[in-house]
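Hi W., the nicotinamide-adenine-dinucleotide complex you wanted:
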Amino acid sequence: MAEERLVPTGAALAGLPTLGRSRPSKDKDLKMETPVLQAPGPTISVEQENNPWLAQEARFNEAARRLNLDAGIWKVLRYPSREIIVHIPVAMDDGSIEVFTGYRVQHSISRGPCKGGIRYGPDVSLDEVRALASWMTWKCAVVNIPFGGSKGGVICDPKSMSQGELERMTRRYTAALIDFIGPEKDVPAPDMGTNEQTMAWVMDTYSMHVGQTITSVVTGKPVSLGGSRGRREATGRGISVVVDQALKHLNMLPSETSVIIQGFGNVGSNSAKLLWDKGYKIIGIGEFDGALYNPAGIDISELLEHKARTGSVHHFPGAQPFDQDDILIQKCDVLIPAATENVITSHNAGKLQCRILCEGANGPTTPVADDILASKGIFVIPDILANAGGVTTSYFEWVQDRMGYFWTEDEVNQRLDRIMVDSFNDVLQYSVAHSVNNRIAAYMLAVDRVAHTTRQRGIYA
Ligand code: NAD
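Structure:
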């Protein structure tokens, strides 16, 4: 059963004053509301720094304040426009019935249909999905593609579920959202814990409901079912392009640049392989249960074979085992967190020894850590720019599905490279023009673009 929440609810759930519900009757109430809209910067307490929704909101508020955004548009963009919660019954292999809780949050349709992945994991929460949905809005705007942002998630442990259980859960989750997704409404994609197979099940379930095959309802599908060539590697490819650009900007050379990557899943392994192919020295790989370190460089091709053969990066003969927390603070030129949120916080930001931090994951750095990184002069390539290669190639997949005409991998890659280089330069120029760090520059660029279309469309009465 789907239960749709009308917005705004974000601030209320986050324990913040809720805006715009009723006209304040006393001066005192007015004073209470004003400081929220004119907050002096991305301030967030150390206790709250791990809440991704508050982290997103702090950066959004800072960008909006610097843009002098008018109060009405500020309120519109601050909240997701729709939040859906579903409780989905699934027949398990042992004959029992389990009920899983799932979410779909649609933040904005101002610039086009919503676009955003589906995450499966035990720690999925509404605040996390909310933050990820907003980040998708800003990310699509940074790379200037015609989508708004959304995200979905189901609280489950995909590693402990059989393929049959995952398929039944995915199909029931899709059925529960059937009225809210679609090529012109909201287009899901894979995220942590989901993959091409998950997208094939979503596509098939949606197609069965509408009575015809609609490949463009999801992206990140298998190429044989309307997926785009290059999509699997796209996020890593985008990361390798923006790292190249940062090196040029800082007068550094790939052959003299060492890299540490956290996470060896889709984003981490593809970033590692593409950077290694370009001559970068990958000296560390972190995973949730241990890390690898070799100051002379790790052969990524051999590591990929090792992982395919054994199922993990551990016991790889070409590197020494290392602590998963300490790997982040080892000396390197480029650090790429490509696993999950909140790994660079007030606790370890001061110990980082990298020159460039390129955020492959969504939300790996907390706002409190941002200030510490700035004081250390670390060049940050923020998530909404750095990992936008994935959604950009998802956009190409959606375009190709709707045309029914498919591009070569070279065509996909060339178009992706151009967008990533242009977007990197746009963010850098914004940062110089407004004297802000790269993260706030990326948010300002995005919020400005979304605010512009919101004003142009007007508010439907
Ligand atoms: P994935 O599930 O393929 O890989 C994640 C990897 O990180 C796994 O190897 C996992 O073991 C590891 N990991 C998980 N928690 C960890 C921890 N605490 N410490 C170290 N390693 C840990 O997921 P993915 O698709 O590669 O996504 C990774 C991140 O990139 C997520 O934040 C996701 O939202 C973001 N992202 C993904 C894409 C994409 O196209 N897949 C696009 C943009 C952003």
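Residues 190-193, 235, 262-268, 286-288, 324, 338-340, 360-362, 387, 390 surround nicotinamide-adenine-dinucleotide (CB under 6 Å).

W.
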